[in-house]
Amino acid sequence: MKFRVYAHRQIYILLYYLLIKNNWWLYLAITGASLKKLRVESSLTQKRLAELVGVSQAHIAKIELGKVDPRLSTINRILEVLAEGKRVKCKDIMTEGVLFAKPNNSILEVSEVMVRHAISQMPILNGNRVVGTITEESIIRNLGSDIAKKNVRNIMDPPLPMVSEETTVQAIRTLLERHQGVLVTKGKDVVGIITRSDLLKTIG
Description:
It contains nine helices and six strands; from the N terminus they run ααααααβαββαβαββ. It is α+β, with helices and mostly antiparallel strands. It folds into two domains: 9-87, lambda repressor-like DNA-binding domains (434 Repressor (Amino-terminal Domain), Orthogonal Bundle); 91-202, CBS-domain (Roll), CATH 3.10.580.10. The strands form two sheets. It has a four-stranded mixed β-sheet with strand order 1-6-5-4. A two-stranded antiparallel ribbon has the order 2-3. Helix 2 (32-41) packs across helix 4. The protein is rod-shaped and about 75 Å long.
């Protein structure tokens, strides 16, 4: 049975894991050319793939040219690396340069920033700690003649969920069903934000 290379990302991943976990590669004609195509689709150079797999670039080149028959462990590792490369992570789609508000900022100040930057929410920072979120909805819920003069702390919502930049996009989809955004962290620092519209970047 001939191994066909499918273009769709999700089918790629499914095939990789079926191959790796069940050793189905033994029954399929995985060629050097098909591995090369998968490598190129993953935007990896021979050198980078070799580093991740733990072999020489020359060995990867020989595999792709069909000049050597690689060991099972090498094939498995190559497939694992290529599969990992297909998993989109939060750091790949997040918006950097998060704009923060402070608890004592006025709603007028914050709303002007939101309109200027075309954003629908801002995390609230008290010192180095995220203590809440100000959103279009929270402002609309509290509309009144004195809304412009109110402080953010008076109407802010709870903080947005926070995840590591290495978290996969798949893992945060359920969070975005319940929240307008997710804050992305690197260590203790907030380095980005992902909103529902950012998920559109993962289509295709």
